[in-house]
Amino acid sequence: MKPYLRVLAGMFAGITLWLAIVELIHGNVVPALVQWMFTVGLVYLAIGKLIREHRSRVKAERDSLAARAEAGHRAFLAGHPAAFAPPPPPPPPSKVRRGVVIAAVVAGFFVLIGIISDISDGLDAPSEDGAVTTPQSSSRAAAQPTQTVPMSTEAATTARTVAPTSTVAAAVVTSTAAAVTSTAVMPAVVCMDLQAAQDRIQAAGVFYSRSIDATGEGRAQVQDRNWIVVDQAPPAGALFGEGDAVLSVVKEGEPSGC
Fold first, then answer.
1. H or E stretch at 135
2. Which residues, in sequence order, are bridge partners of residue 233?
3. Residue 70, burial from CB neighbour count under 10 angstroms (0-12, 13-18, 19+)
4. How many angstroms from the chain centroid is the CA of residue 84?
5. CA Rg value for the chain
6. CA neighbours within 13 Å on the CB side: how many for 24?
7. Using CA atoms, how far apart are residues 180 and 258, in angstroms rounded to an integer?
């Protein structure tokens, strides 16, 4: 029974190690350290006794060999015929139980499947509003020319008439920047896969969009082609700028209404 319990401890050690890696990826250092301590304890339960027993067995074999060599040397000096006797055969190696090997393989398989499933469901930590920022290719963004939109007459008049304080100036610059960036027309991307939707938004002139899990579970979209857009904001035809587009998505195969 004990070998199977060690296999179970090893399986949970693999799980806690993966959880520690995920927490570290998300920047959660303290939970990662806690998971790491659990991993160390489980690894000790899984193989700690086996390592101690192996070291004790090796030490006993070396001590026995040294004692036999010393006894043979003394018998040789005394002219005893035992000095010329062949050494005893080495002890047979311990047998590995087939059931334990099968259990270890099955446990490792389940841990591997869990890791692959976790990666497929997404590992990126969601932002504060539940959206995941999806940066697009920088080379494609650099290839597009920069459009400069002149400041409107109303904004220019406001900038000339307001008091020259830093707070008011910052507000004018922010509102002007918003007016400059919101120059693209939002395309219709509902029922497209997320990658195709992002490509269409890029073609409209905006290179940064966001995507959120429509189920509310906060899953991140690691492989964009495995997600389907079920809702978009702003609607098709509206003006939008960098980061304004928010696409609600579900995994391929889940109910989407498309």
1. strand 132-135
2. 246
3. exposed
4. 64
5. 34
6. 11
7. 34
Range(s) within the chain of domains with CATH label 3.30.10.20: 132-147+183-251
> Which listed CATH number (3.90.1700.10, 3.30.160.150, 3.30.10.20, 3.40.50.880) goes with 132-147+183-251?
3.30.10.20
Cα–Cα distances in Å, from 131 out to 9, 29, 175, 219? 37, 22, 24, 10
CB 9 within 8 A of CB 42: yes
Residue in this structure with the two tokens 């060599």, named with its chain if needed: 69
Whether residue 3 is preceded by a cis peptide bond, meaning omega within 30 degrees of 0, is no
Sequence-distant contacts of 36-45: CB under 8 A, at least 24 apart: 39/13, 42/9, 42/10, 42/12, 42/13, 42/16, 43/9, 43/10, 43/13, 45/6, 45/9
Dihedrals phi, psi of 253, to nearest 5 degrees: 100, -15
Rounded to 5, what percent of the chain is helix, strand, coil?
Answer: 55, 10, 35
Does the global pTM surpass 0.85?
A: no
Q: What is the pLDDT of residues 107-152, one digit of tens each?
A: 778 788 877 776 766 554 444 444 444 444 333 433 344 444 444 4
Q: Which two tokens stand for residue 104?
A: 């270890």
